[in-house]
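In line with agreed milestones, the collection of sequences with tokenised folds has grown. One record among many is set out beneath this paragraph:
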Amino acid sequence: MNFRWLNAVLWGNSVALSWMWGLGLFFSVQMTFMFGLQGLLMFAIPNALGLMLFGLLTHNVATSHNGGQESLAIFFDKFSKPFRLILYLYQIVALSLTVFALVKYLFVPLQLAEYPLLAIYLCLIVFVILAAGCLLGEEFGIAKIKFSHAMLGGLLVACVGTILFNLRPFSPQPFQWTSPFQDEWRGARFFGYAIPLVIGLLVGPWLDLQHWQRAIQIHREKTSIRASYFFGGSIFFLMLLFHGCLAMWVMKTDGVHVVASAGLDQFKYAHDLVTQYFQRNPGTEGIMRMAYFGFLAICALTTLDSGYIALKWFLEKNVEKSDNMLISLIPKQILGSPVPTFFVIGVITLIGILAKLQLEYFMVFYASFFVGYAALAIARCYVPNSQQPLPQIRMFMMSSVSLVVFAFGYMSSQTPLMILGAILPLVYVVWLVFNADLLRVVTEKAGEVIEAASEIPAIKAIAKTAAVVTSSEVVAPHDHHALGGHFEGKWFVYSMIATYADTNSVGNVYFGMYGMYVGKTRELFFNTAMPDFDLKTTKFFILTRSFEHKFVREAREFDTITVKIKVADFNRKFCTLEHQIFGSDNELLGKGKQSLLFVASKDYALLDIPSEVYTAFLKYT
């Protein structure tokens, strides 16, 4: 038990460091500059709560699904399919934002190179930062990253301790509820930041690959995800509080020397005010200067190495599962490597710096564009009615509209438009879920009406003339062992009893029988889904392209074997079926998948999935 708590603390430290990316690192300074202590707390509290809520909810997901230590990994494989592109884009923007912020607000103010050499200098800096992140990510995988982050966390504590020890003067006086500068930021403008930030920060972790990978690994190690993220949120809150209070101390100590630069939108930005302070005072503050620069470097590197590991995990997994012919032409070592993505991140960073962009221009995506996807991701975890196929085009259009509305409101100082841009995706997601719920209710009520009508003598007489048995009529009897199988939601279920002929010399069910069980269930599923299929007249055949099965437990003679099979995925030419096998006590015996292809019955030429199959299978996907 003590080891599990220690493990939770180590993972909490890693969670906090990986979440201390450019958004938390420098925006805490800007919020303090604009709104004082109230702005810092408004930013820090929902940020930390977002982490804790993610840990709490994913802990519930992991413990409520069968599969043991792999339950969350199995869940994420299914959950992430419709969000793959958004998860990837989210990671690119997050890492680009981090590198951009570190270069823009640390290295650029240091003025280590003049104009002719500035572009080369920036390229070298970006390359070194990205290479360091790749090196750490390659050296420490997800299983060991908590140890590398523990060492870096110790260095960070030393840096923070050095700064706090050398603060002169240090008293509660500098900590003001409102900022001593910028009266134009007060009033309604505060809510223009507060509402989008609270919304974006509370749902933000749900699209971050780094957090999903951590949660899966924490669960594999039999450690509480909930406890780990509680520690992570607490540590992260203290880090934000430290950086914001340091900025407040600089504003009070430096006074009139605090300079805010005007952006392209003529707003005043002061993300680098602490860096500027140490740059102007290199003498007596030398130790604090190095400690502060070390603090920034550690926060950035622990985000980049986490991003590298998460991207590698995500890309490799999706490349292995892809059936796209164009993707198969490119070596998997390239497609599954984060290095090309890091190159794109470097290009985005350099363009942003040379174009004189600000951190807020990247953050607009997290306050508007990604909000709808994150909210829908949460709904798909907990609201059964949101499990229908993701409306990709509609979601993208709505997210883009909210992005434009928010951006226009930000650039024109229109607080209502900023709030609308953040709330609009949430409203749309609620409508999507409610609409699906309404459709489900109507379908259920229609079924009840039809069932009641079937008892009317005239209709009953007509029904007797219908000889075709549909899949909806194949239901489980009271003992749950239907002769031809039955449906439980989208799963087709068939049960049988293992006998002596199924076992090997030691009494266990022979390993090859499990494949035969799955094959028998598949044929019954086809027969139920397509009752009119006739081998004599069919224009196509269904062939097995590949078959995979992972053995989990063994079964013995007279055990009840239950096979569940469903349509997991399909594209233009191939269909993937997923299966699970359970024993007498409903324990998982094994799981796997198979890929099907379709050929012409005359010459066995490869076909697109026939329309009859689409029609029959679509309601079970």
